[in-house]
From TrEMBL:
Source organism superkingdom: Bacteria
Keywords: DNA-binding
Protein name listed in UniProt: Single-stranded DNA-binding protein
Classification via Pfam families: SSB
Amino acid sequence: MSTIKNHVQLIGNVGQEPTITELESGKEVARFSLATNEYYKDKEGNKQTDTNWHTVVAWGKTAEIVEKYVVKGKEVGISGKLKTRSYTNDDNEQRYVTEVVADEILLLGSKVDK
């Protein structure tokens, strides 16, 4: 069971074009939002959708794959871990952000030309 500590797997659709940043070290980082949907029926039996948004961060080779093949609307599978970081905003308030750090990405759905 020690191998499944802090392990996340998601399948969803990319919500925006990924942003790719090259750091001073030459390493690339990719960031994008991922929408996952859960479906249920309400009291009247009507189908409802609950959408959750996740921020995904990919580094190195995984970021290169994102840069080449991932576009808005593309269905992808993500395997990685949760990471929470904090920062101080311009109003000197402490903020926390939880992101999915992707170790692997699986391209799903139909082929989308980039």
